[in-house]
Design goal:
GO terms for molecular function: copper ion binding; oxidoreductase activity. By secondary structure, the chain is mostly beta strands. It has helices at 91-96, 393-398, and strands at 21-24, 28-30, 33-34, 44-46, 67-68, 71-73, 79-84, 101-106, 123-131, 153-156, 164-168, 170-177, 184-188, 194-199, 202-210, 213-215, 220-226, 232-237, 255-267, 289-295, 312-315, 319-326, 332-336, 342-346, 361-364, 369-375, 381-389, 401-407. The two termini are 35 Å apart. The structure holds copper (II) ion (CU).
Length: 439
């Protein structure tokens, strides 16, 4: 890595990334987003239940100099969400250049006295990204192969090589994989166990003890780790099996993510509760439809993303099963906008406990079948689609994305009129051969 130069970066209210936004469940919120870039972008509220018009997907374009002010009522459990751009065809480069930030939803359970909850002291957001720097210290938009761009240097909350001074016996880390392509397998350098307390959409029923946790791009997890006074341990990302031997995935790479250095005297922390919340189970038996999605290297179900085409029409306040199969040889994941879903099964087996809570993004390795159950609550709009897509952003930009509208019972889907000039003409072209990608 080279230091000393100035990278050209993009950010919200600053040079890189953006402020942590905190909202309370039940609150009406409004965000004013002014686009000071030279090109159009959007801001997507990843993991939020909200009306399609507020989603910030590629249909809510913000032109240069324009301001977009979505407002909605937060009605979902406390959770670690995030926000990032979603301009169709250039999401990868907009995120890579630095756009992204944490969006925390609080409720009485997530801010309980029984959990570490002092922001910046024992409740710490960690935005993990990989970048490649050139000899002048500028971000390099590196070759895309397999999963996409893999950086050689990690940034944590936008910093290279930070450390964290631990001041409490228990520390909660809200981990976000905001990389464009890389997946991480997080653990500690002495293999100590830690607890997962929350997944993408909020608290798990109970803490889950593990010594590794995988995050594919856009996934979040909240973990709690115990430290003794004076200890030093490193949060690390370990080699992992991404189910795609021979494909450039970064699976063999490892990184020091964050050294933790405990003070000589630590603030006492309460024991983690045995029960964190009661996750309301969606009953697959109540599903009114089952849909199949086959993820290929550059499309879903033989269709490249088309801004003008509505791929799925679903009915508001109904439950559906989405059966997602990665039929390619490259790893993907699967994200659905405007909601949280539950994983019913992975290759017909119940999911591990850390995947049994609310999720909005789930790993889809080659050859694996996922069964998801979801409910399209409250909001409908026949003309404005939500997205479902792979969150490996090169794949997303290349067309591994589709659109669904939520309609009222008996209502027909409308006509899409927004975002039709995307993908952006200045978007860096995708390699015509899709090198490293297969059927
Ligand atoms: Cu993908």
């Amino acid at each position: 890595m080279t230091t000393g130069g100035d990278a050209d970066t993009w950010g919200y209210n600053g040079a890189l990334l953006g402020p942590t936004l905190r909202v309370r469940s039940g609150e009406q919120i409004r965000v004013n987003v002014r686009n000071d870039l030279d090109e159009a972008t959007t801001v997507h509220w990843h993991g939020m239940r909200l009306p399609a018009a507020c989603d910030g997907g590629p249909h809510q374009k913000i032109e240069p100099g324009a301001t977009w002010s979505p407002t909605w009522k937060v009605f979902q459990p406390g959770a670690t969400l995030w926000y990032h751009p979603h301009p169709h065809g250039s999401t990868e480069v907009h995120v890579y250049r630095g756009l992204g930030g944490m969006l925390l939803v609080d409720d009485d359970e997530t801010t309980s006295e029984h959990l570490p909850h002092r922001y910046g002291q024992d409740d710490i957001p960690l935005i993990v990204q990989d970048k490649t720097f050139d000899e002048f210290g500028k971000f390099v938009e590196a070759d895309r192969r397999g999963v996409g761009m893999l950086g050689t240097t990690l940034l944590v909350n936008g910093a290279v090589g930070p450390t964290f001074q631990v001041t409490s016996e228990l520390t909660r880390f809200r981990l976000l994989n905001a990389s464009t392509a890389r997946s991480y397998s997080f653990g500690f350098s002495d293999d100590r166990p830690f607890h997962i307390i929350a997944s993408d959409g909020g608290l798990l029923d109970a803490p889950v003890s593990v010594d590794r946790v995988r995050l594919t791009p856009a996934e979040r997890v909240e973990i709690v780790v115990r430290m003794a006074p004076g200890e030093r341990v490193v949060l690390h990302s370990y080699p992992q099996d991404l189910g795609a031997p021979g494909i450039p995935t970064g699976a063999d790479d490892q990184f020091d993510v964050l050294p933790l250095i405990a003070a000589g005297k630590l603030r006492p922390s309460p024991q983690l509760p045995h029960r964190l919340t009661r996750v309301r189970r969606l009953d697959p038996g109540t599903a009114v439809a089952t849909r199949d999605f086959e993820l290929r290297s550059d499309r879903i179900n033989d269709e490249h993303m088309d801004m003008a085409r509505i791929d799925q029409v679903v009915t508001v306040d109904t439950v559906e099963i989405w059966h997602v199969t990665n039929v390619s040889l490259v790893p993907h994941n699967f994200h659905v906008h405007g909601m949280q879903f539950q994983v019913v099964s992975v290759d017909e087996q119940p999911p591990p406990a850390e995947l049994a809570g609310w999720k909005d993004t789930v790993f889809a390795p080659p050859g694996v079948q996922l069964r998801l159950v979801m409910r399209f609550a409250k909001y409908s709009d026949p003309d404005l689609p939500y997205m479902y897509h792979c969150h490996l952003l090169w794949h997303e930009d290349a067309g591994v994305m589709g659109q669904f509208v939520v309609v009222k019972p008996g209502e027909e889907a409308g006509t899409v009129t927004t975002g039709l000039d995307w993908p952006h003409p200045d978007t860096p072209p995708l390699p015509p051969s899709h090198d490293g990608l297969h059927g």
